[in-house]
Specification:
This protein is an alpha/beta fold. The chain is built from twelve helices and 15 strands. Strands 4-10-9-8-7-5-6 form a seven-stranded mixed sheet, with helices on both faces.
C-alpha cells in the first residue's frame, strides 16, 4: 500500500496520542535521529547525560584523582548504590540489588546459590527446572550449574512451571518475558507455586526491567537477575545486576567468592568470609567506566513512575498491532505476541516468511527493529522515547515493504 492510499485516521490518531503523552518530554533526554528506533529491547538509546559524565570520570576521577577515586569518588560503593537505583525500578527495597558482572555470570551465581539453599532443606532436592524456551545463555548456565551441584536439568514450558514443581525441585529458572514472542509470564503465581513446593524461584528480568512493574518484594521473589543495556539504556556491555531477597542473604553461598565480596576485602586473608547483605553478590573488581555510565543513564528515571511506562508500553503495542492489521497485506505476517495485556511484555513479534530480508529492507528505510531466526520480526517499544507517530510510520513502511513498493 503506498502512502497516497493510506487513510488519515490512524495518522491523526497518532498525533492526538502523542499530544496527550505524559512521557513525551523524556524523548529530549536521549540522542536520537530521524530513524524509527524499535530495537530498544536489544540496545537502548544513549541518554544525553552519559557522555559528559563519562568524560568527567575519565579526565578527573581517573585522570587526576586516580586511586583516590575508589573512596573520594565513590567507586567502591558503586555496585550497591547503583543497585538500589535499579532496585527501585524492579520493586526491591534498598540493600538487595548489586550491580556488576554480566547476566550470564549472575545467572550462575543465583542458580548455584539457590540450589545450595534448597539442599539445606533436603538433599533430595536434585532437580533444576528451566524455561524450555529460555534465552540460550540461561539454559547453558543452568545445565552447567546442574552438573556442578549434582542435579538434573528439566526443561519445562514456563506456563507449566506451577504444576511441574515437586518434592525434588531445588530451583526454577524462568524468564519474565519471552525474548522471542514478548509473552509475559506469571511471576506472582509461578513464584508462589515454586515456593509452596519448597523450592526457590530465580527470575530473569532482562526483557521486563524498565518496561513494566516487576514487584520483586511484593511478590516474594527469591532471586533475580537482569541486564541494563535494554530498557534501562545503560549502553553496550553495561553491567548486569543480581537481586537476593533479604531473607536469603545470610545463606547466599556464591559459587564465585571473589575478593570484592569478602567481609574484609583488604585484609587479604587466605580464607573466605562473606560480606553481609547484597555485597555477597559481588565477585571481582567492578567495571567502573561502564558502571558509572549506567548510573548517569539511570538519572532519566528519577521522576518516572514505572506504572506510567507500562501504560504507554501497552498503548504503543496496541496501536502498532492495529496499524499493522490496517496497513499490512492480509496473511503476510502473524503476531506471536499475546493480545491480552496481562500476557504481554513491551515488544511485538511478527512471524514473516522472509523475515530476514524484510528487516534488512526496513532498516534501509529507517525503521530499526530486529530479526530472530528463522522467521520472526521483533519490534520493541521503549516508552521513554518512542512516540505513536513513529509506531504508525513503522507499520506503514512495513506494509510498503511487504507489498513490494520500491
Amino acid at each position: 500500500m503506498s502512502d497516497a492510499t493510506i487513510p488519515d485516521t490512524l495518522t491523526e490518531e497518532a498525533a492526538t496520542l502523542d499530544a496527550a503523552d505524559e512521557l513525551r518530554a523524556k524523548r529530549a533526554a536521549f540522542t536520537l535521529d530521524d530513524a524509527v528506533y524499535l530495537d530498544g529491547n536489544s540496545l537502548g538509546a544513549l541518554p544525553r547525560a552519559v557522555p559528559a559524565r563519562l568524560a568527567d570520570v575519565v579526565s578527573r576521577e581517573w585522570g587526576r584523582l586516580r586511586i583516590r577515586s575508589w573512596e573520594e569518588s565513590g567507586w567502591w560503593t558503586a555496585p550497591e548504590r547503583i543497585g538500589d537505583r535499579v532496585g527501585r525500578l524492579v520493586g526491591a527495597a534498598p540493600g538487595q540489588v548489586v550491580v556488576g558482572d554480566s547476566t550470564s555470570v549472575n545467572v550462575f551465581k543465583a542458580v548455584v546459590a539457590a540450589v545450595r539453599i534448597a539442599q539445606e532443606r533436603g538433599v533430595h532436592r536434585d532437580q533444576i527446572l528451566v524455561d524450555e524456551a529460555t534465552f540460550p545463555t540461561d539454559g547453558y548456565i543452568a545445565e552447567s550449574a546442574a552438573r556442578m551441584t549434582g542435579c538434573t536439568l528439566r526443561p519445562v514450558a514456563a506456563g507449566a512451571m506451577p504444576t511441574a514443581v515437586g518434592p525434588r525441585t531445588a530451583v526454577a529458572l524462568v524468564n519474565h518475558v519471552d525474548y522471542r514472542t514478548g509473552r509475559l509470564h506469571d511471576l506472582p503465581g509461578t513464584t508462589a507455586a515454586v515456593q509452596a513446593a519448597g523450592a526457590l524461584a530465580v527470575w530473569d528480568l532482562c526483557h521486563s526491567a524498565g518496561a513494566l512493574p516487576v514487584g520483586l518484594d511484593a511478590h516474594g521473589v527469591d532471586l533475580a537477575v537482569g541486564c541494563t543495556y535494554k530498557y534501562l539504556n545503560g549502553g553496550p556491555g553495561a553491567p548486569a545486576y543480581l537481586y537476593v531477597a533479604h531473607e536469603h542473604q545470610p545463606r547466599f553461598d556464591s559459587p564465585l567468592p571473589g575478593w570484592n565480596s569478602h567481609a574484609d576485602p583488604f585484609g587479604m586473608a587466605p580464607a573466605y568470609a562473606p560480606a553481609d547483605g547484597a555485597a555477597r553478590g559481588r565477585a571481582g573488581t567492578p567495571d567502573i567506566l561502564s558502571m558509572l555510565a549506567l548510573e548517569a543513564a539511570l538519572e532519566v528515571w528519577d521522576d518516572v513512575p514505572i506504572e506510567a511506562v507500562r501504560a504507554k508500553s501497552l498503548a504503543l503495542s496496541d496501536f502498532f498491532l492495529r496499524c499493522v492489521e490496517t496497513y499490512v497485506p492480509q496473511g503476510r505476517v502473524h503476531s506471536l505476541t499475546p493480545a491480552a495485556h496481562a500476557e504481554r511484555g513491551s515488544q511485538v513479534a511478527l512471524r514473516c516468511a522472509d523475515a530476514g530480508e524484510v528487516m534488512a529492507e526496513l532498516v534501509r528505510r529507517g525503521v530499526v527493529g530486529d530479526f530472530r531466526r528463522p522467521d520472526v520480526l521483533r519490534f520493541g517499544f521503549t516508552p521513554l522515547y518512542t512516540g505513536f507517530a513513529e509506531v504508525e510510520r513503522a507499520a506503514r513502511v512495513l506494509a510498503d515493504v511487504l507489498s513490494g513498493v520500491a
